[in-house]
């Protein structure tokens, strides 16, 4: 699969690169025709730093942020994002001490926070940071979580998003469908690749892929 990989870059920052592998892939709730490889962005210092720099532009002057909740292995990007927002000299978040958190998931697949960190979310402005947004289902789970802990959703950021918004909340992404115009995400029963008899290449999730 790796030999099929192509790369796209952010137009304003050529050091931010996204890997794309065409094929037939299954997630836990959809089938997609590209595996979006974010390994470098999520694990390497420079790539994570530059991606955070791009995402910070959307919030520096317009949106107060108290907490960044990191999903899908985006903790390093979240730390850089907090730094960029806090240290932006003329920005709205300049001088703030932004908290960076990752929720747990319980046996019912619900996101939870332990007692010792709940006060970090209560009545705070929260930015949700994700690796990939395809259908918005994970955003919905996070919104339920924030409502339970009395946090206010200030925005959603992602490395890649196939949607522009969810429930009237804009999704700010480094890469969008404009960068991957052929990307398709469908429910399994409506998958055209399955209908054509093409076998699934791999099972994918936020950790990576496993070939079948």
What is this entry, summarized?
The protein is an alpha/beta fold and 212 residues long. It has helices at 39-43, 45-56, 75-86, 115-118, 137-148, 192-195, and strands at residues 6-10, 13-26, 31-37, 67-70, 99-101, 104-105, 111-112, 125-133, 152-161, 165-166, 169-175, 185-186, 202-205, 208-211.
How does the SSE layout of this entry go?
Elements: E1 6-10, E2 13-26, E3 31-37, H1 39-43, H2 45-56, E4 67-70, H3 75-86, E5 99-101, E6 104-105, E7 111-112, H4 115-118, E8 125-133, H5 137-148, E9 152-161, E10 165-166, E11 169-175, E12 185-186, H6 192-195, E13 202-205, E14 208-211
Parallel strand pairs: 2-13, 4-5, 4-8, 8-9, 9-11
Antiparallel strand pairs: 1-2, 2-3, 3-12, 6-7, 10-11, 13-14
Shape: globular
Which residues sit in consecutive blocks of at least 5 with pLDDT less than 50? Answer: none
List SSEs in N-to-C order.
EEEHHEHEEEHEHEEEEHEE
Calculate the terminal CA-CA distance, rounded to whole Å.
12 Å
Main sheet summary: 6 strands, mixed
How much of the sequence is in beta strands?
35-45%
Radius of gyration: 17 Å
- Could you tell me the mean pLDDT? 93
* Relative helix content: 10-25%
Structural class: alpha/beta
Relevant terms:
212 residues, alpha/beta, 6-stranded mixed β-sheet, 6 helices
What would you note in describing this structure?
The protein has 212 residues and is an alpha/beta fold. Helices cover 23% and strands 35% of the residues. The chain is built from 6 helices and 14 strands. It has helices spanning 39-43, 45-56, 75-86, 115-118, 137-148, 192-195; strands spanning 6-10, 13-26, 31-37, 67-70, 99-101, 104-105, 111-112, 125-133, 152-161, 165-166, 169-175, 185-186, 202-205, 208-211. Strands 1, 2, 3, 12, 13 and 14 form a 6-stranded mixed beta sheet that branches. β2 (13-26) and β3 (31-37) form a beta hairpin. α2 crosses α3 (75-86). The model has no long low-confidence stretch (mean pLDDT 93).
